[in-house]
Specification:
Number of strands: 0
Shape: elongated
Oligomer: single chain
Helix content: over 70%
Order of helices and strands: HHHHHHHHHH
Distance between the termini: 44 Å
Number of helices: 10
Largest sheet: none
Radius of gyration: 26 Å
């Protein structure tokens, strides 16, 4: 048995799994055999174990939706609801195919959004690195020249000249404070109250609020349409969309 150094199931794994399962199920391959075949060719060890457990549950007489719901980190409530609707209507093959197409569209949209955000993030990191390098190497040399001139310096220049000393003296404290704040923010975000606070905060950011609202609205419309097409009631569809839209405030 291989050691699982990095656990978790990525969205790409779920998309590939859904498409391949849809194809095999449409070819009338038994569900348990399809799952075993998919587990054999899955490189993600954690996901492989989950698929094997689902296959064992299927062989034991458990419905596919009931087997999937045991692994909420890999299969969302939306995924389970679509499978359950296909089982209830007797159109599981169509539900799996529709689900695979929906997940592929959502994955490509998410990839485009991440690609669009990568460049600004890299530029921001480069700016921070250049700023730190200027404080540590450029400003000290420039300060010597300005001090030797003997002229009265503006307040802003004096503050800039004092930055290297402040960074050398308190730099470690600032770094630890930033790390501590980041750890606290992550832990607080995982709580119900913290998730609500950050979701409300991100919708008030001037540059990103309108962009994020468009993404959330598009995700809601796509998921809601998919659930309604799968035969789920409107109230249940709205509840599921509220869980997977990505922002509890919106």
């Amino acid at each position: 048995r291989k050691i699982k150094l990095f656990g978790g199931v990525s969205a790409k794994d779920v998309v590939l799994f859904s498409r391949q399962l849809s194809i095999m199920f449409s070819a009338q391959v038994p569900l348990a055999e399809s799952l075993k075949a998919l587990a054999a060719q899955t490189k993600n060890i954690d996901f492989k174990d989950k698929i094997m457990k689902i296959s064992e549950d299927i062989e034991g007489g458990t419905a596919l939706s009931s087997a999937l719901i045991k692994h909420p980190k890999a299969f969302s409530s939306f995924y389970v609801a679509m499978v359950r609707a296909g089982e209830a209507s007797g159109k599981l093959s169509g539900s799996l195919e529709y689900l695979a197409e929906h997940l592929e569209k959502e994955y490509y949209l998410t990839s485009k959004v991440r690609g669009a955000m990568t460049y600004p993030a890299v530029v921001f990191l480069v700016v921070i690195a250049v700023f730190v390098l200027m404080i540590l190497f450029v400003i000290p040399n420039l300060s010597k020249v300005l001090k030797e001139s003997g002229q009265e310096l503006p307040l802003v220049t004096k503050i800039a000249m004092a930055l290297p000393d402040i960074l050398k003296t308190w730099g470690l404290v600032f770094l630890l404070a930033i790390i501590g704040l980041a750890v606290f923010s992550v832990r607080y975000y995982r709580t119900k109250k913290g998730r609500y606070f950050f979701d409300r905060l991100i919708l008030r950011v001037p540059l990103f609020s309108s962009f994020l609202k468009i993404i959330y609205l598009s995700r809601f419309a796509e998921n809601f349409s998919t659930l309604i097409s799968g035969g789920l009631p409107i109230t249940q569809s709205l509840e599921i969309c509220g869980q997977i839209i990505g922002n509890r405030v919106y």
